[in-house]
Amino acid sequence: MSNWYSRKFARVLSVERLLWVALICAGVFTYFRYKTVPSLEQDSIVVIDSAGVQHKLSELTSGNTVVHFYASWCGPCLRELPEIKEFMQTPLGQKINFVFITEDREDQVKAFHERYGFNIYRINKLKEADVYSIPVTYLLNDKHEIVKSDLGNWNWKEDNLKNEISTLIK
Questions:
Q1: Of 37, 38, 83, 106, which has fewest CB within 10 angstroms of its CB?
Q2: Is the CB of residue 99 less than 8 Å from the CB of residue 60?
Q3: First vs last C-alpha separation in the chain
């Protein structure tokens, strides 16, 4: 009888181990999918401007460019947008092309354009650009290379960020 019990207990331990391995794998997958900055495939991302014209993202990233993915329902995004607007008015900000991308409805994009003055591009679904968490910001140099990227909002008023940007875009 003790032999039967030990075999059953060993099977339970095996199943428990498999469940733990599955949970760990799911956690690692979730972390890398939602907590890492996705690559920015500029030639395969298609966005729509306010006139309804489609563009490849690579057509919009001339010179030093900040590509910023956001949504109108995102709290950190809403806190960051006024800081970005203020940064854009600085001498350093005027040297940079800004591209804002969202999956918001047209009326929401129009309201944000009127409020901030940004040129905002729409995408059907952010996941088409491999964006699963927002805000996501990329700084590209004039060769279309990503020189800085982060998931989450940047502190656009911080001197360290301004110094880093001015160093990276030279």
A1: 106
A2: yes
A3: 77
CATH class of 46-168: alpha beta
- How far apart (Å, rounded) are the C-alpha atoms in residues 38 and 41? 9
Distance CA 166, CA 109 (A): 29
Residue 68 φ/ψ, nearest 5 degrees: -125, 120
Cα–Cα nearest to 80, from 48, 36, 118, 51 = 118
Mean pLDDT of 134-151: 87
Distance CA 18, CA 35 (A): 25
**C-alpha span between 139 and 146 (Å, rounded):** 6
Top pLDDT among 38 and 128 is at: 128
Domain regions of the chain by residue span:
1-35, 46-168
What are the tens digits of pLDDT across the range 60-112? Answer: 888 899 999 999 899 999 999 999 999 999 999 999 999 999 999 999 999 88
Contact 98, 66 (CB under 8 A): yes
C-beta separation of 64 from 141 below 8 A: yes
